[in-house]
Design brief:
Layout (H helix, E strand, L loop, with lengths): L1 E4 L10 H8 L7 H19 L6 E7 L15 H6 L1 E3 L4 E10 L5 E3 L5 E6 L2 E6 L15 E7 L10 H16 L27
Antiparallel strand pairs: 1-2, 2-8, 3-7, 4-5, 4-8, 6-7
Helix pairs in contact: 1-4, 2-4
């Protein structure tokens, strides 16, 4: 199973102006640097949360549709339990397409009426609609492709304030430590990681 981002947002949860105000920087010489630190901090935030901040597209590739024991979620109805596909990096807003290779190797696209998106205990699950089942697929490492859109929203203001604050604090830490040598690689952010806990997707 692989999950990859297929589109980048044109905006960040924190603007350059907001970051400069936080850093008390009143010149333009470091604008490119600060913009890069915003992107790095946002990426780190998303990795820690396993959640997308600004709406972007994602692609999940599977060797086949789920079968028994694929996903164990204790309170789900058995049929859904056996066949649910977990979509990572939620909140999942929509599923763009579900594409698969049939047993003869022909690429097919499932009708949107053949599946449904459900949210359960902070997880986003894709399951066959109306108690149905997934079609048979060819035996391949990439037999099934699910394209979907995830994120809190399309604007920076849709991102919860604690997460935006974490990014600002991380940018401040990275900016102040930008001259550290390679033998001291990681700037620890444990002092503010508590801001993320309420939004983290726990496995």
């Amino acid at each position: 199973m692989t999950v990859t981002r297929i589109a980048q947002s044109a905006i960040e949860p924190v603007t350059l102006q907001e970051a400069k105000l936080h850093l008390r920087v009143d010149h333009d010489a470091d604008d490119l640097l600060i913009a890069g630190l915003i992107s790095a901090a946002r990426t780190d935030c998303e990795n820690k949360l396993q959640r997308t901040l600004i709406t972007t597209g994602w692609r999940l590739m599977l060797p086949g549709f789920p079968c028994l024991d694929y996903q164990r979620l204790c309170d789900l109805e058995p049929t859904l339990l056996a066949q649910a596909i977990r979509l990572r990096m939620g909140d999942v807003q929509s599923v763009s397409s579900v594409i698969y290779l049939d047993p003869d190797g022909v690429q097919r696209t499932l009708s949107p009426t053949a599946y449904e998106l459900q949210s359960w205990a902070g997880q986003w699950l894709l399951a066959p609609a109306h108690g149905g089942s997934w079609p048979a697929t060819q035996s391949s490492l990439q037999s099934v492709t699910v394209n979907y859109v995830a994120g809190f929203g399309a604007t920076k203001d849709s991102v919860p304030a604690p997460l935006r604050s974490w990014i600002l604090l991380a940018v401040g830490d990275l900016y102040s430590q930008r001259l550290r040598s390679g033998d001291k690689p990681a700037v620890p952010h444990q002092f503010v990681d508590g801001l993320l806990d309420a939004y983290k997707v726990w496995s």
